[in-house]
Each structure stands twice: as C-alpha cells, then as structure tokens.
C-alpha cells in the first residue's frame, strides 16, 4: 500500500501552525486581560473610567484603593458600605497575584507585593510597553489622559489591549 | 386582535413609563423638601436649572469649576470625564434612561455638587436642574 505521506505531513503542519496562532490570537497575544463581569463592579468602576481588569493590579493595590474611595486619585468616588465591600472582594479575588494570575503575572515584574503602586500606568511593564508612544500622541484630543485605554485600544472594554 | 396590540404596546412602552414614574417620584421628593426648607417655594424652574448648569462656581475643586467642565453646555450633547471617558447626554429627550434610578441620581448629585460647588446641592437646586434636563 502506498500511503501519501506528503499531503498528510502538510495537513499536520498546517493544523499545528493554525492552532498555535489561533490560540495566541484568541488570547490577545498576551495582551488579554479578562474584563470585569460583575454587573455592579462594571457599573460603579466603569462610570468615570474604563472598568480596569482586576488582573492589572495586585491584591494589595486594590485593597488600598478601595479603602479610601473618598479620595480616589483626587476624586470623590465614595459608595455605600455594602457596594464598596462587594467591589473590593471581586477585585481582590481576581487580582494579578490571586485569581487573575493567568493574565496579570507579567505585569507584576518588578512590583513589590507589600508596597505596590496604585496606578496601572506606573507598573514597569506598562511603562515599557508604552515607551514608544510620543508626547504628541498622548496629547491627542481624544486621548485626554493615560488612563483612557479605549482611545487607542479599541477593544479594551472586552479585555483586548493589543496595539 | 385589538387587545393583543394594546397589550403589546403597553409592554413595549413599559420601560419608558417606569423611568418617567421614577423621575416624577424624584421631583416630588425634592419639591416636598424644598417646601419644607422655605415657605417661598413656588415650583421648580428650568431656567434657574439652566443657569445652575452653566455657572462658573469655582468654589469646589479647582479642576471642576462648573457642571459644564465635564458635561456639555448643551445637555443634548455628550461630555467627557477628566480621564477621557465619554459621558452620555443629560437631556431626557435624547437619553431616555436618565434619572430613572433615584439612588443613582442622589449619588451623582452628592459627588458632583461637592466637586463643583464645594457643598451639597439644596433640594431646590436639584429640582431646578432636574426639571431642566427633563424639559430638554
């Protein structure tokens, strides 16, 4: 019997190739951070800015942020106690060093877990990923602030932070 | 057949009537509080509300001297938060979902009045402002 080896080998190579890249594409090529699914968290954290994926900061950062919502980076974002607690629990459960490790592990490089930054834009990985953005681009009218991810990352709401 | 159509129409319009009822409740609550605060109270004024909306108070946070710092001066248009996120229009005519949740309305009055005026708004101010946005 004559088995056609070439077509089979070609088919296998194609399959392996597409699986590898499809998975990477689906995962956002390492730029995917699971978006907030809790409706309360999404509504409360997402009314002034993007409801940042909890896997973008370590648990300690979220605890510190949620401990003083009255002075939330200069704004009053205070909420009733029950809502505050619900949001804090969700963020802590899905943080970069807890439930969200699969997405946020790389962001924690060079970050102290005891005394971490509270700003995603100060994470060493964030800084290096954005090093090529010129000052002019940051000043674009629709960008407004470095915290406005969606200005450049169109699919940020769904968790994709590709270029 | 006619009954079916009526039922269908009622169900379809329910979300709108529900939010309208929520807004009326809010206005009634503010009216009662305004009356209790001053015997001179004689109803809310959309014109006063419009003035409140555009006044440069500069008595709260330096970055937010007026409502129109973040919200558009024309309530039918959207605005932007300091972080750049788009804010949906305030006018009910273009944004039916507005002011249907009293707790949400109170939360934002509290935060925003403190940031812009440096104090909480009075029931009269809240009612005036709300009636402006409902009438727009």
Summarize the structure.
The complex is a heterodimer of chains A (163) and B (136). The model of chain A has no long low-confidence stretch (mean pLDDT 91).
Task: Report what the structure shows.
The complex is a heterodimer of chains A (163) and B (136). Chain A is mainly α and 163 residues long. Chain A has helices spanning 5-26, 39-45, 59-67, 81-93, 101-104, 124-129, 135-138. In chain A, helix 3 (59-67) runs antiparallel to helix 4 (81-93). Chain A is elongated and about 80 Å long. Chain A starts with a helix and ends in a 25-residue tail after the last helix. Chain B is mainly α and 136 residues long. Chain B has four helices and two strands. In chain B, strands 1-2 form a two-stranded antiparallel ribbon. Chain B is globular. The mean pLDDT of chain B is 90. The A-B interface holds A 48-50, 74-79, 142-145, 147-148, 150-151 and B 61, 63, 80-85, 107, 111, 114-115.
List keywords for this structure.
A: 163 residues; mainly alpha; B: 136 residues; two-stranded antiparallel sheet; 54% helix
- How would you classify the helix and strand content of chain A by structural class? mainly alpha
Strand content of chain B: under 5%
What Rg of chain B do the Cα atoms give?
17 Å
Identify the most extensive interface between protein chains: A-B, 17 and 12 residues
- Elements of chain B, N to C (H/E): HHEEHH
Mean pLDDT across the residues of chain B is: 90
Number of helices, counting only DSSP H or I runs of 4 residues or more of chain A: 7
The proportion of residues in beta strands of chain A is: under 5%
Q: Based on helices, strands and strand pairing, what is the structural class of chain B?
A: mainly alpha
By DSSP, the count of extended strands of chain B is 2
Helix residue percentage of chain A: 25-40%
**Largest beta sheet: strand ordering of chain B:** 1-2
This entry's quaternary arrangement is heterodimer
Percentage of residues in helical conformation of chain B: 40-55%
| Morphology call of chain A | elongated
How far do the termini of chain B sit from each other? 37 Å
Round the Cα radius of gyration of chain A to an integer and report it.
Answer: 20 Å
